[in-house]
Amino acid sequence: MEDHSLLLLQQGKVVWSREDGLASIIGVTTSELPVEKEGVSVAKVELNLFEWLKGHMLKVKGSLMLASAEDVAAIQGMRLKSSEKSKMIRDHNGFRKLLIVLTKSGKLFALHTGDGQIVWSLLLNSLRQTEACKNPTGINVFQWQVPHHHAMDENPSVLVVGRCGTGTDALGIFSYIDTYTGKELKYFGLDHSVAQVIPLPLTDSTEQRLHLLIDANGQAHLYPRAPEAVSIFQRELSNIYWYSVEADKGLIKGHGLKSNCAGEAADNYCFGTRELWSIVFPSESEKIISTVTRKSNEVVHTQAKVIADQDVMYKYISKNLLFVATVSPKASGDIGSATPGESQLVVYVVDTVSGRILHRMTHHGSQGPVHAVFSENWIVYHYFNLRAHRYEMTVIEIYDQSRADNKDVLKLVLGKHNLSSPISSYSRPEVTTKSQSYYFTHSIKAIAVTSTAKGITSRHLLIGTIGDQVLAMDKRFFDPRRSVNPTQSEKEEGILPLTDSLPIIPQSYVTHSLKVEGLRGIVTVPAKLESNTLVFTYGVDLFFTRLAPSRTYDSLTEDFSYALLLITIVALVVAIFVTWVLSEKKDLSDKWR
């Protein structure tokens, strides 16, 4: 079908259908479920009572082996309906959410994280072929309105951005969708192209998130188009920067904003841009194959890292850092297309505001493909070493040397430190880096990192292997400070002894014995419960699970014996009372002597 679904028709009737469009996901975001509203109607109570009585009657019939096949199916349906996992209201732990996924066919799905059911689906009118738009293409899906103060009155919505063609110079398409009902609230074509979409960390009074769209001519367009959005944006105009990568030209540019557009495109929502810096990689020796940056919504719990002997190192935390990997042109093909002498892999860490290169490292005799993940102050990337004929993974950690003097506890207590002093990307940062490389057994397809609500829980790397499985590895395995013989203080800190290769522990496979066929991406979403993170993996198959990287230290397990706890408390209360009575009798008898 047009939406890539598959149907079996027999004598004019649909026998079965499959939503095979879910095998071509191009964008993923999340939405909270509705808040449970207080107050229950009498009719609802009567209906629930009737359902409860009906369920018990069916269970009795099932226990007595008198249930028919229809009764067994009804019992199973009632169990699924009453399950906590599949409820359509949000829970206090933040486990139940909606996964909003955009597919290549232009169809949007809402999947319930509890049981994977399709809550609603919609073939977007804005991404259907028309006379005006011959070849509509979806770009991505973004959170548009996330009500917090008006969660009881307003529904959240998402923004789908597309274009009428495959090139970046094609005109753009906008569509707003209610995530609770699946209705397309509004859609329209844009009068400019869409080369880049930048969600801004700004919201208006209706809690709509501001987005900046960059067209093919380098002009910036602000959405939503409202006077309030412009006034908010104007206040932050001088603090907004972004970068663009032209891999075929070996060029990375940094951009900033200036006054409103001039000429035909002039309006209050269009802004001119200016090029701040550029990095040109020589085409005869380097070709860009991978770029990675941090998640914009990532939470870092603390900048300080306490190491052995009570020393402190300060992480260099910046959302403006970009990881770039380049290879020699001869090594840009498949593995083995170049000799070790002809190939080299060069990695950079670039500040995207000033264009300054903070770190550069060369791996001689290595080539891509490069898969990388950037989190907090560290980067982990995977590549192939032609000299050793093995895959390798390297970690780079970046630390702030300008705060290295803040190690005196008395100064910290008295506030005589510079931890709260502002940091500017234009000042030359005093950074130091630590790195280490390890052999890795597998080729990989994707790599991600767990994320939690407060950033307290230790992070695990999620590696999508060539075997279409997801492997979870503790970040401690990628610590550049690992040594062959760690000292006692380093062991207490949790540093593992150094080995030349990373261990593959069978129990660490998140997917267990299952395979996610055609694995293409891994998405992590924080839950409200700090110890847990939600993981969604997509390809031809879909896989969802919940992980606790540091175990469930902030909650009781599902098999916890509440009955035993209650019995213990009652026994202690009885023992205290009996002991008190016996003590009183003993005191009284002692006084009569």
Automatic annotation (TrEMBL):
Subcellular localization, as worded in the UniProt entry: Endoplasmic reticulum membrane
Matches recorded under InterPro entries: EMC1, EMC1_C, Quinoprotein_ADH-like_sf
Keywords of the record: Endoplasmic reticulum, Glycoprotein, Membrane, Signal, Transmembrane, Transmembrane helix
Membrane spanning residue stretches: 560-583
Coiled-coil annotated spans: none
Subunit record text: Component of the ER membrane protein complex (EMC).
Coarse class of the protein's main subcellular location: endoplasmic reticulum
Family according to the record: Belongs to the EMC1 family.
Species of the source: Salix suchowensis
Protein name as catalogued: ER membrane protein complex subunit 1
Alphabetized Pfam families for the sequence: EMC1_C
Record SUPFAM superfamilies: Quinoprotein alcohol dehydrogenase-like
PANTHER family: ER MEMBRANE PROTEIN COMPLEX SUBUNIT 1
Membrane topology (UniProt): Single-pass type I membrane protein
